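so my prof wants the structure for this chain in the tokens format not the other one, which i didnt know existed until like an hour ago. anyway here's the sequence
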Amino acid sequence: MHAWPASEVPALPGTGRDLRIHDTATGSRVTLDPGPVARIYVCGITPYDATHMGHAATYNAFDLVQRVWLDTKRQVHYVQNVTDIDDPLLERAVRDDIDWTALAQRETTLFREDMTALRMLPPQQYIGAVEAIPGIVPVVERLRDMGAAYELDGDVYFSVESDRHFGEVSHYDAALMRRLSAERGGDPDRPGKKNPLDPVLWLAARDGEPSWDGGSLGPGRPGWHIECVAIALDHLGMGFDVQGGGSDLIFPHHEMGASHAHALTGEHPFAKTYVHAGMVALHGEKMSKSKGNLVFVSALRREGVDPAAIRLTLLAHHYRADWEWTDGVLQDAVDRLGRWRAAVSRPDGPPADALLEEVRDALADDLDTPRALAAVDRWVELQRTEGGTDDSAPGLVSRTVDALMGVAL
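here's what i got, hopefully its the right format
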């Protein structure tokens, strides 16, 4: 599966700061200290509907992580998956009377177009669950053969008790874990499981549903969590720098994925840092496909909204914050974009070297984008009220905003 084209990242003078970011597993900020190649895995979409603003906010956060790393002169190895086989996809295909593969291809194509328009840097590996199945099957077989998994009526489940580190990502109690498992694709009430929280690794073939050769597992399809584990281990290995996604992935997805990897390899941790973006709401409820309260990136683009304004709307909120999408927040971003573009189109302005360092400092401080935007706002206002004589300043401001925040002026 191919990703999307990369937009050019302008070179900036000097060197950026090492990123301090909130780690869900420790509950504190940590300074990321990757080697020359920083490794990041971000969980991708289940392509049964178009990219909504909650998706966009998540991928914006991890695009910023990459940009901060690139500014420190590191390379970035970024991997993202596509869950192109799962219950929600099959259910939507039946509802809309469309072949599930056609639905997945259509929505994945639209996602690529949205990411291109928003100037999100693409992953080096963009891998669908279906194409990863030949690598997933031996992983599940190994977990079963090690005694970390067991069969139940043909399905294969992971035993959470096989990982002594289980719970160290979310730190949730058992009652909350059970509730979230039921809400987010698990089956805690299924009779016969060793532990209600045990997640499925391999789902045996069902009538009327697609299935694949599972070797000794029999025909079927993979569970959600093992998909990401197999892909991440194959391309990044254990102990990669950042595992990222929305905060709704803390449990069960990232907790279970970590446990799968720990049991499989005998090593710890799966990822050095777990980073999660907040949720975007509409009309007081989290934006989600199940609720149908979605604002789609593609719909805004069709209405003529500049993608740079969409991105500025996202940047106006701290990545970990939960916030609400309104027409007002979009209009604020449209107005800000107009002011910024007018400012950098002038032939000169006040010096911008300090602005570059302010933006670097803000982003290195747990991706503090509101502070970064405020710094640019001050430069724009100073240029408007007092002017300046530095003919290199508008260009430096434009490159700063582009390289570090992905907004083309």
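also thought this was worth mentioning. Residues 37 and 75 are 5 Å apart (CA to CA).
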